[in-house]
Write a structure and sequence with these properties.
The chain starts with a strand and ends in a 22-residue tail after the last helix. With 243 residues, it is α/β, with parallel strands linked by helices. The protein has 7 helices and 10 strands. The longest helix is centred in the C-terminal third of the chain and has 14 residues. The protein has one domain: TIM Barrel. Strand 6, helix 4 and strand 7 form a beta-alpha-beta unit. It has an 8-stranded mixed beta sheet with strand order 1-2-5-6-7-8-9-10. The protein has a two-stranded antiparallel ribbon with strand order 3-4.
């Protein structure tokens, strides 16, 4: 079994890289940075460098040892397309994802430009879902970059959602996740922003997943939208991995 995750849209996490640097508004209150500091203080070996980008070659083959098919979020504590991660290491991560064909792997980046620069240099297996984070309208161009990749499943993480995202081009996008910011100093999310995105997904026949309202206490605020839980997964998912 993989390293079980509490993230609502995945099952497990795998971190062959840890650490990152802030690149846009959504990074301001980074949960991974807070967690990395905590793990360093606890003496966790993988976090001896705190939140500095660190490669972990010893962790590369972990998914090969997890025999039960599962959905795995890659680098929940980093960004695989960070400039400090060599292309050779990114290729090794992709090779493992190809070999561990019984899993689904979810890769999420804010560094969409490097994603596109690297896309043709990588071997894309069908069990890799590629996503970009879009926290407000300033970063809608990340969706255009994502569309240029040959990923079998393309998704958007609109979290933390910091502003409205009207009139998104959702062509060739398979899945949209929406969530508010959680933890200390969480910035608020407007219900109208969420409902508008949900309607855009309906219009474009894109799977919609509402992750959370967020806030200081995300368990208290929950994930009900107009009294319902929305947990749709990509329509292509059932064809990509054996049950």
């Amino acid at each position: 079994m993989g390293i079980k995750s509490s993230i609502e849209w995945t099952e497990s996490t795998w971190n062959p890289v840890t650490g990152c640097t802030k690149i846009s508004e959504g990074c301001t209150h980074c949960y991974a940075e807070r967690m990395a500091r905590r793990l360093k203080a606890m003496g966790q070996k993988n976090y001896v460098n705190g939140f500095k980008v660190t490669l972990h070659p010893h962790a590369l083959n972990l998914p090969m040892t997890w025999k039960k098919p599962q959905t795995i979020f890659v680098n929940s504590m980093s960004d695989l397309f960070h400039d400090d991660i060599p292309l050779t290491f990114i290729r090794k991560v992709f090779d493992v994802m190809r070999q561990a064909h019984w899993h689904r792997f979810q890769v999420l980046t804010k560094r969409a430009e490097r994603l596109v620069e690297s896309a043709d240099l990588l071997n894309w297996p069908e069990n890799v879902w590629m996503g970009v984070t879009v926290e407000d309208a300033s970063y809608l161009n990340r969706i255009d970059y994502l569309r240029k990749t040959p990923a079998a499943v393309r998704f958007l993480s609109l979290e933390p959602l910091l502003g409205p995202l009207p009139n998104m081009d959702l062509s060739n996008i398979d899945w949209v996740i929406v969530g508010g910011e959680s933890g200390p100093s969480a910035r608020p999310m407007d219900e109208e922003w969420v409902l508008n995105i949900q309607q855009q997904c309906r219009n474009a026949d894109v799977s919609f997943f509402f992750k959370q309202w967020g806030g200081v206490n995300k368990k208290k605020t929950g994930r009900l939208l107009k009294g319902r839980v929305y947990s749709a997964m990509p329509n292509l998912a059932s064809a990509l991995c054996p049950a």
